[in-house]
Amino acid sequence: MADLSKLREQIDQADQDLVKALVKRYDLVMEVGRVKREKGQAVFDPKREERVLDKVTNLAQRPEEDF
Ligand SMILES: C=C(O[C@@H]1C=C(C(=O)O)C=C[C@H]1O)C(=O)O
Which of 45, 55, 57, 64 has the fewest CB atoms within 10 Å, i.e. the most exposed one? Predict the structure, then answer.
């Protein structure tokens, strides 16, 4: 059986990785916003958001045997 404290260390690391990835994404989105404003483009792009959501939804798919 896997050691509980080792599993929790891995969870803590995964949490740190997630927060880092979210901060990186936030910084990139802010940069995209600055570039769009400079170009006089609308920041909100619902079509792009739909594509991002579709892509992320696909990435989150796991085979049934994983559950
Ligand atoms: C980041 C962009 O701009 C905005 C933010 C998005 C996001 O958070 O994924 C997606 C579309 C836009 O509303 C982009 O155009 O790529």
Answer: 64
- Residue 16, both tokens: 């740190």
Residue where the block lists tokens 């959501």: 53
The Cα-based distances of 3 to 16, 20, 63 in angstroms read 20, 26, 26
Closest residue by Cα to atom 8, ligand 1, is: 29
Asked whether 4 and 11 are in contact (CB, 8 A), the reply is: no
Rounded to an integer, the average pLDDT of 3-16 is: 98
Confidence of residue 55 (pLDDT cuts 50, 70, 90): very high
Domain boundaries, the chain: 29-57
